Amino acid sequence: AGIKASENAAFDAAKVYFKEGREALGSRGWEGDYSTMLDLCSDGANACFLTGDFVSMNDLIEEVLSKDIDTKEKYRVSDIKVNSLLIRGKVNESIDAALDFRRQLGLPTPQKKPASKFTIAREYMRVMRLLKKKTAEDIANLPELDDERQEMGQRMNELLGICIFHVEPTMLPLIVFQMVTTSLKYGLNSSSCPAFAALGMLLCGPFGKPHEGCEMAKAAELILERPGMRSSTSNTIFVT
Q1: Using CA atoms, how far apart are residues 154 and 217, in angstroms rounded to an integer?
Q2: Among candidate residues 179, 163, 165, 170, the one with its CA nearest the CA of residue 108
Q3: φ, ψ for residue 188 (rounded to 5)?
Q4: Of 66, 88, 110, 202, which is least packed with CB atoms within 10 Å of its CB?
Q5: Which residues of the chain are modeled with pLDDT < 70?
Q6: Contact (CB, 8 A) for 229 and 190
Q7: CB–CB of 106/149 below 8 Å?
Q8: Residue 227: its pLDDT value, please?
Q9: Cα–Cα distance, 64 to 62 (Å, whole number)
């Protein structure tokens, strides 16, 4: 009932249904049916987030995060946590939560501190070597990302890219290079669209390569045309 209510955007009702489901499972719900309890808490946290009930949302998020379960199973509530902190203007906390989750996934994660010109130049050279002479069409025809851990990491970097500029702008190129590198090595997902759009912005701007920058922006547009890539449309259009 909660899922059906959510699908119909009746999130106030969905919140109630998910709560009733948790109460029905009782205090030993995690031990008896942890998969159902995980869904009830995750979906419940999302319904609370969308109705502005941040107190209940935080309680559900922390309940899931406190459990000794696989990190990937904590992804949904972690995504909600990062988003909710961001929309409430708690940018530093949002960044910390996203970086922390990437570390828990075991993925390369930059430290939250100013990036030196040397570090930026080094990572720029690395990503340009990976790109070689790939055209926009070459990039858009890369295989789809099928590594769940990398996909979760890409999503966290996408959220970081939205807010990191306001706190530590020198980190933005590192986040973008990391997203592009993951796309080139492991395949494309919806987060690849703003990644290549942002790379195009950097190439047209501080790196002084407008031709290459326009080619990356074109790649972002072509990736958007692929099935299942539209969820990052607004972020991609904003960057381009």
Answers
A1: 18
A2: 179
A3: -95, 145
A4: 66
A5: 1, 8, 230-240
A6: yes
A7: yes
A8: 85
A9: 5
DSSP tag of 208: -
Three-state SS for 64-129 is: HHCCCCCHHHHHHHHHHHHHHHHHCCCHHHHHHHHHHHHHHCCCCCCCCCCCCHHHHHHHHHHHHH
Residue 113 makes CB contacts below 8 A (sequence gap 6+) with: 168, 171
Neighbours of 103 (CB within 10 A): 13
Sequence letter at residue 109: T
Q: Which two tokens stand for residue 72?
A: 């990937």
187: which residues sit within 8 A by CB, 6+ positions away? 142, 143, 144, 145, 146, 147
**What's the CA gap between 186 and 94, in Å, rounded?**
26
How far, in Å, CA of 233 to CA of 128, rounded?
25
Residues 42 and 64 sit within 8 Å (Cβ to Cβ): yes
* Chain centre distance of CA 97: 11
Token reading at 192: 């690849």
* CA 67 to chain CA centroid, nearest Å: 22
Distance CA 231, CA 212 (A): 25
Rounded distance, CA 62 to CA 185, Å? 33
Three-state secondary-structure class, residue 188? strand
What is the per-residue pLDDT for 238? 45
Query: How far is it, in rounded angstroms, from Cα 238 to Cα 212?
Result: 19
d(CA 12, CA 111): 39
Q: DSSP code of 10?
A: -
